[in-house]
Amino acid sequence: MPVSLSKFDTFGDVAAEDDAVLDYFLSTNAVQKVEKGDALLVLGRKGTGKTAIVRYLTEGTRNPLSKALNLRGYPWKVHASRIDHGASEIEAYVSSWRYLIAVELATLVVADAKGSASSHTKQLKKFLNDNYGGTNPNLSDILRPSSLKLEKFSLEPAVMGNKLGSVTLNRLDNDHQFGLELNALSDSILASVAATSEAAKLGKLSLHFDELDQGLSELDAARSKMLTGLILAARDIKRSAQKPHGAINPVVYLRSDLWDDLQFSDKNKISQTLAFQLEWNKDSLLELVETRLRAKLSHNTIWDDISNSSLMRGSQSKWNHILARTFLRPRDVIRFLNTSLAEAKKRTEEPLIFTNKDIVASREDYSSYLKQELDDEIRPHWQYWDEALQACSAISTLTFDREDFEKEYGRRKSANNSVTFDGALQYLYRFSVVGYDRRSGYGGSSWAFQYTDPQAGWDAGASRFKVHLGLKEYAKLRETRESAPFSTLSLDDLIAAEDEKQP
Fold first, then answer.
1. What domain range is 184 assigned to?
2. Helix, strand, coil shares, percent, the chain, to 5
């Protein structure tokens, strides 16, 4: 039977937290890395699938000892006050994160060892009930108490041989004992967690920190230190708890741009050994879409079954035409296809499949969506980035020269905007709003975009630039028509350069 889109409801939700992702999840190398405990840090742009991985690894019965810690709505201001004045500036929040991780691990083992009467389980239950009124406190409440009670907590923490009867979380600015006491308490909890897990042979305990960027309007110094503290605390606990039974696997999922802005001494070491960068390409994105098609239509459906064979302008396939307007991430593809599906359903023909008109008619709505996505990513780093995009709109063509941008940006740059035109171009390149003309050693050229060729890096001497095709409609840009120079483009370059000059 021919495949038809008439009864196909959606390609999925753009936001993974709202999507039925478990019905058609595509397992990738990232999942395997996390499951094996090889990845402490999972990096990716917004929309590359971080939350989908968290949901896959923590929902259902796949792994009851794997817990998602969603920081949407997290009380960052409360956490900012739990600072260790005795530690270095970079490590000021390591002790508070270690304590939070220890408490979350305690809730995991207590929940899974309900029938256990061991002293370690009783100790953990006593501590949680005394301080939180139950054995499963909300993530947002863990650091809220003004002090923590330790009465009859048999593994009493001690600092320099002195046992602690309580730990105060509200401290004066000159109090340097906070970190020592909180670390001692965390070590006691972790020891009890390890003993409980080892005795019950519970297996690996995994915590997944997600949505760290939610509500972030500005990446200030305090938030940067807190993010750094979480990563360092997770690494510290992971290092000290690798046992056959009771191994602990904390994983932090972070947007790449936030990671790029963090500065601390071990950053490169973590990048090289414990971080995994989420990346997608033409083939893996096609596999993701076809996995969803097979889940909803029939077990052998492929892309060619739902789109006619006519090529787009420039002898380009529909699939490449769509990808050229994305940042090669699932969120973009799903949004474009859902908009195209709505366009196709305006017709009543059967079988209903995508036509060129459906794809073209989707571009304007999709372009507005992409601008909003970029707002969320760029504004925490540079709130005046609209002025740079307005300069591109004033030039009015997809491609432009450095001199033209300098002139138009200067006209629109507000008094509070401290970013120079060179800095503006570098920001636009960093977030793939623009790419630059890169010359090859053979007399050819190609467009270097950060999302397709991150190894190319920023070229401060570049003189010619191109706006990403996904913003063409929003910025009201037109194509240039001058004849193109000889070019040696790869397939990814061709995708990124579509609708511009053909080699």
1. 29-277
2. 45, 10, 45
